[in-house]
Amino acid sequence: MKVIAIFAPALLLAGCGGPASAPEATDSPAADAPVTADPKTATGEGAITAIDPETGKITLAHGPVAELSWPAMTMGFGAKEGQLGGLKVGDKVRFTFRWDGKTAEIESIDKI
Q: Beta strand 73-78 with 92-99: parallel, antiparallel or unpaired?
């Protein structure tokens, strides 16, 4: 019993190391989410804030995405060759994408 009485205060003090650190900010809504074998498809509307045709990336400031319970945010999406043609920064778009828990890939995107 004396062993518990000696170690209990030490264990309590060890748990009081200082303030917890804040989680790191990411441009992905679920950076810690597991990659799923069955990606989800969702739709959204938003505005183009950046396009990088060399890497096939597009950044969208989009509204809430109900299918994934996401709030409005700005994030990057991958796109296939040819999907970004005719689009420019500032265009308002409606898009469908696949989310595997780590990355979002555009399936279709159209100006509105």
A: unpaired
Alpha-carbon separation of residue 84 from 17, 55, 75, 78 (angstroms): 50, 11, 16, 10
The rounded distance, in Å, linking the Cα atoms of 22 and 29 is 16
For the segment 38-46, the average pLDDT, to the nearest whole number, is 95
Give CA–CA dist 46/61, Å, rounded: 5
Tell me the whole-structure pTM to 2 decimals.
Answer: 0.68
Per residue in 72-104, pLDDT (tens digit) is 999 999 999 899 999 999 999 999 999 999 999
**DSSP 8-state assignment for residue 25:** P
**Alpha-carbon span 32 to 25, nearest angstrom:** 11
Strand pairing partners for 111? 93
- Say whether 92 sits in a helix, a strand or coil: strand
- Judged by DSSP in three states, 11 sits in helix
What's the angle, vertex CA 12, arms to CA 8 and CA 15, rounded to 5? 140
